[in-house]
Amino acid sequence: MSVKHILLGVLSWEPTSGYGIKSEVEFKGRELGWGRVSFGSIYPQLKKLQEEGLIQAVDSEKEGRKTKIYDLTAKGWNELSDWLEKPPASPEIRDELFMKMSFWDTARSNDRETLIDHLEIRRKEAIEMLGFMDDWMSNDYSAIGEIGGFGMDYEKARLKLDIQWYERLVNELRKPTSVPHQDPRELFKKAAARKEKAFREGE
Amino acid sequence: MSVKHILLGVLSWEPTSGYGIKSEVEFKGRELGWGRVSFGSIYPQLKKLQEEGLIQAVDSEKEGRKTKIYDLTAKGWNELSDWLEKPPASPEIRDELFMKMSFWDTARSNDRETLIDHLEIRRKEAIEMLGFMDDWMSNDYSAIGEIGGFGMDYEKARLKLDIQWYERLVNELRKPTSVPHQDPRELFKKAAARKEKAFREGE
DNA sequence: TTTACCATGTAAAATGTTACATGATTAG
DNA sequence: CTAATCATGTAACATTTTACATGGTAAA
Q1: What is the pTM for the complete model shown?
Q2: Mutating which of A83, A103, A159, A183 best tests the B interface, going by the most B Cβ atoms within 10 A?
Q3: Which nucleotide is nearest to A19 (CA to C1')?
Q4: Do B55 and B76 form a contact (C-beta atoms < 8 A)?
Q5: A170, pLDDT greater than 90
Q6: Cα(B160)–Cα(B183) distance, rounded to whole angstroms?
């Protein structure tokens, strides 16, 4: 969790500024299991980390620019290393597509077209991202370590699975509607009745 | 985003209490792309949704218990449906394992065993979750709709990929260390030097 | 009778985002 | 010369979690 370790980690790659960290996260973090980080959390955190002695400002080589370049201190390297040693928390996946699909059967069951649209957008985005990762992994500028590289390979495998699945699902949705998968307590039937009743009484 | 639509969605399945919503989310939501929801956000939100007229308290069948059962109003059904119509936001994946792997090469490069431990834990968790989902999808109580069922099928495919990948990665890590994948600017070499320097100066 | 579970709620703390303010430098 | 990008920072707002307070019911 926490921006703190993202900042320490990014600085472990190379000393940079708050602005530089933002770009790194924007660029690499997107598909690497980090969320986003805003300036509003980066700058105060950098200040705090400096006060705690985990990072320090180093001389900026970029003349003229009023930029603060930070690097890890010994304490900072230790903090980062200690954090890596702890078992990672379970992944937090918040995917509105899946949330929406969970509710589709009760709330929008006779509209398949909109869901197909959503899936097509996702498919395009995933293909784009895969291309982006391929380019990125074969450019002559970026550093990819052994372990970090494994992570990226996996990310690519996952994207390929996603793309396949989006395609398969669109095909399924174009076939005629089938009956609910499993409904021992007739919840779907009841939900439809509740909905209808709500509209009768509501208007 | 937002607890709001999770509450509306869960209530679309079946009228229930704040406590009941929490259980549903704990139970199903875990692997279905929702985050967690705490009581501290459920109860205030339920109150708010009731004030806004999106949900209403219905008679509790459970005699004796002081429990408030909520159901959607017509307005609530519309709100849920409108939300489903909008293209889902991009997935937010926050996986500390991948974050940690991104930083492993600079901060803990000569410790492969700890990472193997992390991966083994993940593998076990994924296998457990897969078993849980299989049980759950074949019990005689839970309702699974057509669309929601597709989501679960995909989730299972993803878990299988995860398991395979954890295994493959552990195998890779047991082999001797290879050189960094790609390092045109010698960042890894420089990082090692910066780290060493920080410790020399720091102590 | 005691433990586990069912059940609701609030206040404080943590965390983070958005929007704004400000200004320098570089590329076209 | 003007747009894009580099660059830092704060204050207000939003969201959510944690911790606490409270109490009922069911099963062992």
Answers
A1: 0.91
A2: A103
A3: D7
A4: yes
A5: yes
A6: 32
